[in-house]
Amino acid sequence: MNILLEEQGLRDGLQTLPTLVPLEIKVAWVHRLIEAGLKRIQVASFVHPRLVPQMADAEALFAQLGRRSDVVLSALVLNQKGVVRAIDAGVQHLAISLSASETHSLKNTRMTLAAAKVDFRENLRLAQQHHITVRAGIQCAFGCRYEGQIDPQHVLDLVKHHADAGANEIALADSTGMANPRQLKTLMEQVLDVAGDLPVSLHLHNTENKGLANVYAGLEAGVRQFDTAFGGLGGCPFIKNATGNIATEDTVHLLHQMGYETGLDLKKLASLSQDIAQFLEMPLPGALYKLMQEPIQVC
Ligand code: ZN
Fold first, then answer.
1. How many angstroms is it from 177 CA to the middle of ligand 1?
2. pLDDT band at 57 (very low <50, low <70, confident <90, very high)
3. Quick check: helix, strand or coil at residue 75?
4. Cα(235) to centroid of ligand 1, in Å?
5. Where are the domains positioned within the chain?
6. For residue range 77-90, what is the model confidence (pLDDT) as tens digits?
7. Distance 239 CA to ligand 1 centre (A)
8. Which candidate, 220, 154, 169, 160, places its Cα nearest to that of 194?
9. pTM score
10. Is 236 a catalytic residue?
11. 117, 180, 184, 283: least surrounded by Cβ within 10 Å?
């Protein structure tokens, strides 16, 4: 059984770091991810360089990496300006999202949800007119630090909204890490129903240490695509105390132990996270890359 992982370390992982990672280092990391078997990598976001300086080199990064047929290199955009920049940079796959939380929407995009929906549809259309496939996301789908619980029906309505708008894929994000496995499984079963033939992925943050438990719940519900970040690095500049995604190598290890296939090389992934931790001069939240440092063997 195959599971598709999308590596988000370059974008979600790096976006809040104070140390700027040089372009050539990012390029080298992307190549190592491809070598480890990743078929989807979100490498940048086209956002305002003043708000997220780490992503200021998005165009240069896409130019360096070039168009590839063996791996999908994606980017995140928040507005029309971002879509236009992505078109000009030759990006072939974009992540565009709405927040299920009105308050988070206002903080993240300075738009009400109603306004964001209109904007979203225009951006999606613009991207698709330029032959870019769009993964339509729902942020804060399982809870919001400002609003607390999010009504599941509201999330299902947004899934339908995305599908009706012509999205190529759907992604649900536990941006705050508040989801619990039972809640997630119940909602994802319904989401998969509403999404029909559209691929559905989960973007899980490990803020409350429930990330991998939620992977299991997602698998049980039938989800086969997950976002991860090397070493579990990351956060969100607009969410208080947000932490990283589930760690790529920890997720791969869990999936392999349970008999799923990912096509990924755990040792190569762990070794990359070791090097990234060394480069950033700080330990990353992930567990496996530390365990896989010599001489301990776990696989
Ligand atoms: Zn995220």
1. 9
2. very high
3. strand
4. 6
5. 4-291
6. 999 999 999 999 99
7. 10
8. 160
9. 0.95
10. yes
11. 283
